[in-house]
Amino acid sequence: MTIYGSIAQSESENISASVIWGKNQSAKEGKAPFQYKRFLGYRRGPDGKPEIDPEQAEIVKRIYSSFLAGDSMTTIANSLTADGIPTPTGSGRWVPGTIQSIISNTPLAKIKIVR
After folding, report:
1. Whole-angstrom distance between the N-terminal and C-terminal Cα of the chain?
2. Within 13 Å and on the Cβ side, how many CA atoms surround 33?
């Protein structure tokens, strides 16, 4: 039983190393996966690479403007929900965690805040 366990563990480690190597190679070739459905502000461009979605970018700007104005995550989420703006996944109800995720994952330097 111990021998079979050792063989299984070794095989699992080899598979893991192969998967990691494959993902690293894909990233080096610029073929890293991009979750467009869950990433607000971008869409797949004609060349298959991300491009800014102007309509969604306005929502991101609104979120940042509200945050910089001192609004809480809950206030921002409630405001977007009240205005009928869909979430990144298409849901109609925003939650503070989604706002937090957007704020923590988008480089502020790339967003031009218009007042």
Report:
1. 69
2. 5
Contact 66, 115 (CB under 8 A): no
Q: What does the pLDDT average to over 86-113?
A: 76
Helix or strand or coil: residue 51? strand
Q: Two tokens at 25? A: 């190679």
pTM above 0.70, yes or no: no
How far apart are alpha carbons 108 and 59 in whole angstroms?
Answer: 14
- Phi and psi torsions of 29, nearest 5°: -85, 5
Cβ burial, residue 94 (10 Å; 0-12/13-18/19+) = buried
